[in-house]
Design goal:
Among the domains are: 209 residues, no CATH class; 73 residues. The termini are close together. α19 runs antiparallel to α20. By secondary structure, it is α+β, with helices and mostly antiparallel strands. The N terminus is likely disordered. A five-stranded antiparallel beta sheet has the order 2-8-9-7-6. A two-stranded antiparallel sheet has the order 1-3. The longest helix is centred in the C-terminal third of the chain and has 27 residues. It is 36% helix and 11% strand. Belongs to the SELO family. It comes from Sphenostylis stenocarpa. One of its GO terms (molecular function) is metal ion binding. This is Selenoprotein O.
Length: 648
Amino acid sequence: MDKGLGFGHARHPIPSHHTVPDRTRERLTRKPFHILKTNMARLVSLTHTHLFSPNSLLPLSLRHRPTALSKRIFRFYPPLACRSMDHSSIDSVTQRLSNHNLHRLSLEDLKWDHSFVRELPADPRSDSFPREVLHACYTKVSPSAPVEDPQLVAWSQPVADLLDLDLKEFERPDFPLFFSGASPLVGALPYAQCYGGHQFGMWAGQLGDGRAITLGEILNSKSERWELQLKGAGKTPYSRFADGLAVLRSSVREFLCSEAMHHLGIPTTRALCLVTTGKLVTRDMFYDGNPKEEPGAIVCRVAQSFLRFGSYQIHASRGDEDLGLVRILADYTIKHHFPHIENMSKSESLSFSTGDEDHSVVDLTSNKYAAWVVEVAERTASLIARWQGVGFTHGVLNTDNMSILGLTIDYGPFGFLDAFDPKFTPNTTDLPGRRYCFANQPDIGLWNIAQFTTTLQAAHLIDEKEANYAMERYGTKFMDDYQVIMTKKLGLPKYNKQLINKLLSNMAVDKVDYTNFFRTLSNIKADTSIPDDELLVPLKSVLLDIGKERKEAWTSWLKAYIHELSISGISDDERKTSMDLVNPKYILRNYLCQTAIDAAEIGDFGEVNRLLKLVERPFDEQPGMEKYARLPPAWAYRPGVCMLSCSS
């Protein structure tokens, strides 16, 4: 959710002046186990208890599944920097570069195509006065953030490449004016999107882009559609009580993590650039009645779509009057972002067990909406499996923060695991129940998919069997992908549940650094003749301050692990190479962000740019940068560094 909040995420009920039929209200707020109880016996409903036991790899809701899973292969794409070099001739490389430069565009020459505005219903008003926006998917509104001498902090060349943008454009004196919203971009048609959502499990009513203003859609030379959005660009009708602005602190984090996640191989929104506004913004970071002024900033976010689950939920929540908008928006989404579903041909039906004695059949080729929701469920499951693989915790997995494309979206109080703790949450607002903690993320993904399927059912786009099948596919896809990821992280020839469960149990007991451990694990040799008292030597840098009893536990695990490696037939060098391609050397630890923020707030943007270059090559050793792989120092455990609020 993009609000520019000076306060926390408020839980707003559906406004009293807006009548929602009882049946619709019940369908939108009920717990997912009402949907799952017949055919999802192996998936339990989400609770706030400990969902991650020390003897289990997976949360309870996904643990008791048959081991005979489908043979889908999870493609963990390493970043470009880690792929094999193209050994083309110098002439061919030169020719490619020459051809590439032909597509470089100035800001004035960007190819705009406003399908969202053109094809979907608009708010008849274009003012920014806070209000309920009915019968519309968006409101036309222009950036209005106060700006005085804006400065370009950083920019991403790979994102510029996506847009065919000439890199010389970043040198223009007026570039910060365009991307702070102070000057309009030629061809842009700005708007703010209307959406709702469940926040911390409660229906919050209308939310919407409270400080994010989409400039429009760019078509690049490959006919790819990319939306440009300014986050922190000023008030919209969806700002409610907030100011529509963003501070440098949160903007640095979003800019860097957007690019870091992409280079880790994780689907995400991207960030083109970060500019300061030159104005101060008042924020109460800890919601303790002590606000302070912070530098304002704006991030230009880039994605093929910023549609969320809540984009559809809001229209279904308003009953029959707006229910048709769910179908209209779904048709638009499938047409532009799932065209393979729009054009699919008949093929054999898919069947699944409902949990009863009979079997039900779902034909995904006869209902495009059913095929669509299944793909959304699978993309979401795959995304969260990848998060778990690198130890990423989103922190605010409300349905308004769930991308319809399966992207990581809205970087607020996120955090990567340092010491392995399944109950870790980086969000101070989440501390009482830890609903969004690391271990709960797979369950929350399922819960959110359940809310999305309920929305489509309310709009009569899918039936209950199709909804249940989508959730079944979520569970299977998560298991498939996560098992492949963990198998690759350990360099094993096949998944070994017992071995991996025991490893995670040991890591949790000894608070072992998640990233550094897996990176160091590739140094283990598949030599069963190594004496027990020497087994831990390669891991001494990551197994810190463990006593005799714990050393015995780790030695026992290592012996079992080395045995598995020894029978794999893979050489140590080959295994190390493959493991280092999926276990990053560098992640965007929160204390690294804070160091860059502290410098940026006094006008030094060097550390932001150094971190950007670092996270663009997370799997490379990068000699001379080893300090960025260190554990958090003591000062990093102060409030506002390793744990954050939603204030931004």
